[in-house]
Each structure stands twice: as C-alpha cells, then as structure tokens.
Sequence to fold (381 residues):
Amino acid sequence: MTSNSLAAYERKLAGLDRKGRSRSLIAASGIDFTSNDYLGLAQSPRLEASLRDALDRGVPVGAGGSRLLRGNHTEHEALESEAAAYFKAARALYFGSGYAANVALFSTLPKRDDIIVHDALIHASAHEGIAASRAPSVATMHNDINAVADAIQRWRRAGGTGRPWIAVESLYSMDGDRAPLRELMGIANQHDGFLVVDEAHATGFFGQGGRGLADCLGHPENCITLHTCGKALGVSGALVMGPAIICNFLINRARNFIYSTAPSPLVAATVREALKILADEPERRDRLAALVTFANEEMEAAIGTPPSGSQILPVVVGDNRRAVRIAERLRSDGFDVRPIRPPTVPEGTARLRISITLNVDEAAISRLFERVAVSMLEEQG
Ligand SMILES: Cc1ncc(COP(=O)(O)O)c(C=O)c1O
Fold:
C-alpha cells in the first residue's frame, strides 16, 4: 500500500472536518449525561455478581460458533424463554446487538411484494436492514400517522399486493418523543400489515414493569418488538419478540443470525439477571421517573425550550461546530455531554443529546442546565 492509496480517505476526512462533522473517540469522563445506562445497571453489583456466579457454574466465555452449530447454549435458550415470559411475547430471539437485530428483521421478513413504511427518524440500523430488503420502502414525516396511511393507500392503488410493514421507534433515540403506537397499530390492522416497534430506549423504563411502550397494544401477532439489552438493561445484545413463526423464520433465513458467532453465553446469563432486576427492583424505575420529571423542569426553566418529557433531552443548537464547542465546554466543566450531528440527525439540527440516568442526581442536573444556559448565551454573544 502506498500513501497515495490513503489520499482519498484523507480528503474525505478533511471534508468532514470542514463541515464540523468529523468524529473521534473520546474516553468517558465526568458526570454521565450521555450514556443509555438509564437504570444505572451497567456497573451494578448485582450484575457483576451474576457474571461471577455464571463463571462459577461453568458458563463459557465464548459460544464457539453460530447458534445453528455448536454455539447454541442453554443460557441463550433460558434467556429467550424468560424474556418471552416477562415481556408476554410468544417467543424471543437473542441477537448480539440491536443493530444486528434490526438488520435481520428488515432484510429478512418483508417480502418482494410487501412495502416498508418507516418513520423518517428511525435508527441507522433499521435503515441498513431496509436498504438490504427485497421490499420497496418509503419514509414518512416524523410521527405523521396520516402520511403512513396515505403511503399504504398509494401503494395499494398502484397495485401493491403484499403486506405493509410499519417501522417505528417507541421512544425516539435523538428526540426523546414517543410514537403514536395505538394509531399505528390501527393502521397496520386495517391494512393487514405488521407493526415493528424498536423499543431500544423504552425497554426497562417505560410500560408496566419496564416492558416497553408497545406492551399496551396487547401483543397481537402482527406486532414485532425489539428490546435492546445494552441500554437500560446495562449489558448488551437485543431480543426480538413476536410470534414463534417469525422467530423460526429469522433462525432459518436471517443471514447475520445464521452466519455469525453466537453472543457470549456469559453475557446472556447477565442479561437474565438484568431481567430479574426489572421485576425485583421497581424502585429504580420510580427513581428514574422522578429524576426525569425534575430534569425536564430544570431544562425548561434554564433554556426555555419545551422538553421531551422523557429521559432523552435534546438541546438543538443547529450548527455543527456550535454543538461541538458547547459540548467541549460542558466536558471541561466536568459534564460528559456529546454533540450529535448529521447524518445521525437531520441537517441543521445538531444538538446536545442529554440523557438522564440513575448515574446522576438532582444537584448535578441543576448544575448541568445552568452551564448549558450560560454556554448557549456565550455562543450567541
Ligand atoms: C433506536 C435504536 N435501535 C437500535 C440500536 C442499536 O442497538 P445496539 O446498541 O444494541 O446495537 C440503537 C442504539 O443506539 C438505537 O438507538
């Protein structure tokens, strides 16, 4: 390889830098206002003890192969049956990450004659799966139920014969707002379609027992949910929940499930414990709910913008570089806040994504929003 062969990448990186879009890895430090460890489980003694216990029981570190070969461990199966029971689903299937699960869902399930109608703000991993799908797709304006119904009707009028797949997040990762799930389920029912709900940011916190926001839909067979295990559950991986046939189909056809080493059985064992914590320690959700209410009030008082109502509080500053500068200032004040820029969010909506977790307290929240308000004023002046 010559240095010339790297020049194109260097130019592209320089281009990103010019647009204020360049990214780099920064070590975690300061008070956590950025992780998705909503229930503060990632470093909880109970999860640590369950990991040690699993090692003592002889659970292996590595699966050693694909689930379809020798990599299928009793820990994976126990996790799936316990998760299905807890989340009231017919069946659950465990993937190594939410990203992999979304790619599997959308690249495998919708058929050529179906259509995928997805919210414009859906996660990159769903986009990836949709791009790999045989089915055509259409993006609809964020949380616009009429646009979803119209897109399906247009497709039917143009001769669409299969089923519509409506794809949304129950709580949007960069905006913290909720999808109108009941209305979307109604549209899916009316058009003989499926609703796929990514619960990544709701799992563990929202819904009865932390079962997510789609729990209230009653788990019909045309609703598939995705529960990530690396956010509120504090571990990693993701559980796809829905009818047994859907899970069986994924086992048979999802290429990234078939041709990939199974997640570590030790990690599966730890996720099992995280589910037990959801059941045994409801006070974590109560504490988080109180902190979230407090943070929403503090944000509104400090900067005047209407807060999201959830644990994800975007402070939209618009310009990429401005978002980077404000986040840097906050980090130098001891608050771990990261700027989120396009293409993760739409052009012109660069923001600070402040997330509230049990890793912070009220005093830290108040100090953070004071500093956010001052930094924004400094930027304007
Ligand atoms: C909405 C949403 N779906 C899926 C994922 C991917 O999950 P994982 O981090 O487990 O790959 C994320 C992670 O950021 C997410 O925010």
